[in-house]
Design goal:
The protein is of the alpha/beta class. The strands form four sheets. Strands 2-1-3-8-7-6 form a six-stranded mixed sheet, with helices on both faces. It has a five-stranded mixed sheet with strand order 14-13-15-16-17, with helices on both faces. A hairpin with a 2-residue loop joins β7 and β8. α2 packs parallel to α6 and α10 packs parallel to α15. The radius of gyration is 26 Å and the shape is elongated.
Length: 416
């Protein structure tokens, strides 16, 4: 099955918002074994929208549109699809009641133009929106389908998972299962070399490598009669990849969106340990990534941004002589930051970062990209020197990633 994603909205073409919908949909369609050949973005112009949709239907089995389901006059995607397929528009009373209930729950009056959102092509499969006022729909004709989804990612993802995934699974037959082998500390080329024969031998099981900042991910997928059968096919391959890459594999996940901080928080929760963080060059980035994970309140004890030397002394107990002799960017300072924070906070694990993120401030002895990450735990304290490259944002992000990985290992008692 071939799919095309048509993203509707002038704001996308103008660069006012990032098109995360298309990225998300491509990932989910890939998991179903549906090939995405084209991403198309079109503005809120009826003629161009119709031209784009006709072209998409001519070359794809399934066309998924995002956006254009709002109540205003430029939200015309449903009307255009209905007109292309020669179908009249009809009002769905149940959808109208859902929209009315939504506004009532928000203690707001519903505008008259919101009634337009309850209009659909005759015979369309209605997709209820549990998170907004714009229901989606599926219009089928001639063995092809147009799936129309709202633009806001919060609404689109919920609708796709609950209502579109089951529909597409029935159409494709069987089930596609995937597992994501998450790798840290090994480059993409190295990781791919170690499993190249497995990638080249792809038949029933496929392996696709992906690279993100500081990490490599291998998606292992297979089709089966059901999810259990598909998983039984991929498990031996996953086990072999883990055997070859060893400690570089920090997780095997069900979702591609899982992150290092997810596993750091999970490890802390499982171990019943708490964490405190002191940050200099990362400026709160480590703590922010921890807080982004649900459940972090159970493990994150406290966080400090100790940018100035005086703050390192006052809040962490770093000795003035350490700063005078070795400087703030040093193994000695990082160690005292972590150990001082652990002693003062009472947390089980304490992490600290200090370094030179640039673009200025570097010297021949201490260049831009030099970062020290220290983690102190009951088993001991470990300090790692990093030599990172790139711009300020990249250096800070990589330093935070290393700190999160060390927190994860310390939670499991595996750091030392």
């Amino acid at each position: 099955m071939i799919a095309e994603i048509v993203s509707i909205g002038t704001e996308l073409l103008m660069g006012q918002i990032v098109n995360t919908d298309a990225q998300y949909l491509s990932r989910r369609l890939s998991m179903l074994g549906i090939s995405v050949y084209y991403h198309t973005t079109v503005g809120d112009n009826p003629a161009r929208m119709e031209e784009t949709l006709r072209r998409a239907l001519s070359r794809s089995d399934v066309v998924i549109t995002t956006g254009g389901l709002g109540p205003t006059g430029d939200d015309l995607s449903k009307e255009i699809v209905a007109g292309m397929l020669g179908l009249p528009m009809e009002r769905d009373e149940e959808s109208l009641r859902d929209i009315e209930r939504y506004f009532s729950a928000m203690h707001r009056a519903m505008a008259a133009n919101n009634e337009r959102q309850a209009m659909f092509a005759k015979g369309a499969i209605i997709l209820k929106n549990d998170r907004g006022t714009a229901p989606g729909c599926i219009v089928e004709q001639g063995g092809k389908a147009v799936i129309q989804l709202p633009g806001p990612p919060y609404e689109l993802k919920d609708m796709f998972e609950k209502r579109v995934m089951p529909y597409l699974t029935r159409r494709t037959g069987g089930s596609i299962a995937s597992r994501y082998v998450r790798i840290f500390g090994v480059g993409e080329s190295d990781a791919e070399t170690r499993v190249k024969d497995l990638i080249d031998a792809q038949q029933d099981v496929t392996i696709a490598p992906y690279c993100s900042l500081g990490e490599v991910q291998l998606r292992v997928s297979a089709r089966g009669q059901d999810e259990e059968a598909a998983l039984s096919r991929i498990q031996p391959t996953v086990d072999e990849i883990v055997r070859r890459l060893g400690d570089a594999v920090y997780a095997v996940s069900r979702e591609p969106s899982d992150s290092m901080e997810h596993y750091a928080v999970d490890a802390l929760i499982r171990a019943g340990r708490t964490v405190a963080v002191a940050e200099s060059c990362t400026g709160g980035l480590v703590a922010a990534r921890l807080v982004a994970i649900a459940g972090a309140s159970a493990v994150l004890h406290e966080s400090h941004v100790t940018y100035a030397n005086e703050a390192k002394e006052r809040y962490l107990g770093v000795r003035p002589e350490t700063l005078a002799q070795h400087g703030a960017v040093s193994e000695q300072c990082a160690r005292e930051m972590a150990e001082g924070l652990r002693a003062r906070s009472g947390a089980d694990v304490a992490a600290a970062t200090t370094g030179i993120a640039g673009p200025g401030g570097g010297t021949a002895e201490k260049p831009v990209g030099l970062v020290y990450v220290a983690v102190s735990a009951p088993e001991g304290t470990v300090v790692r020197e990093l030599r990172l490259s790139g711009d300020r944002e990249r250096i800070r992000s990589l330093a935070a990633l290393h700190a999160l990985n060390m927190i994860r290992l310390a939670a499991k008692g595996e750091l030392c």
